[in-house]
Amino acid sequence: MKPLIAIPIGDPAGIGPEIVVKSIANKDVFNTARCIIVGDKKVMEDAMAFTKIPLKINLIKEPREGIFEENVLNLIDLDNVDMKDFKIGEVNGMCGKAAYEYIEKSIELANLREVDAVATTPINKESLKAGNINFIGHTEIFGALTNTEDPLTMFEVRGMRVFFLTRHVSLREACDLVTKDRIKDYVKRCKDMLKTLGVSEGTMAVAGLNPHSGEHGLFGYEEVNHVTPAVEELREEGYDVVGPIGADSVFHLALQGRFNSVLSLYHDQGHIATKTLDFDRTIAITGGMPILRTSVDHGTAMDIAGKGIASEISMVEAILLGAKYSPNFASQA
User: Which CATH number applies to 1-149+289-323?
Assistant: First the structure.
């Protein structure tokens, strides 16, 4: 049976509803996964109108009530958007709160094993804040609602996998977080996540922080004091890991198949590499949790929301990747 994927529609005022509608109409999605949408019926009807994609909405209370036929959108309607106060393309606290509630419900379904994975659409940090939701983003929400202290983020694009030692902190703080103990902890947990996803063979590479990985201290001592000792100790413990490998070459080598994954040491280091390769098909996977989450890795695009021109490619890829990995994840959960 095809994997069952929960899809919260994200910020109602962004492109989330639109790319969900387009993805449900996509034949690859239909042939690969069974989808349950968590959102607002009025918002989805509006999205179908301006995209000119006339799907049939099947209102359900729980996933087992889904009708998994072509061009049927199975919707759990939280009915939490007042259309009198709603304007597509604008930051709105109501929409931030609604987006959180869609995610919360999707995580609930995954925690109860009523769905096999969650594939998320974009949310807006300003809308979350305006809605008094005290989370900076998806990863933090998933961590809190699955009781996971420090979830892992992995990007996958064209078979290249990139993990992140640090995420939403300043570059100055990110440099301070490059420590031997942190690198060792992350490599071990990243390796465990790969095994959970069914990737047990291959070498992980740790990217260098400084130009040319510091040139033995000429351009900085982070590699000498932290990265190299961490890798050496990990290898002594039996982990298949190498590094530091210069950030100007490590991603290219991973794309060629030399490494099964790369540990990026800060946010933009890995983001630039993956998104330059293929922006639309760079998909985020949140790991180290009891449930599987995949996601588009773009924003709410408020400037084009409601125009019917947003690309669904990333949403389609997120659903397909959730379906790909969920059987491995379920067998080891």
Answer: 3.40.718.10
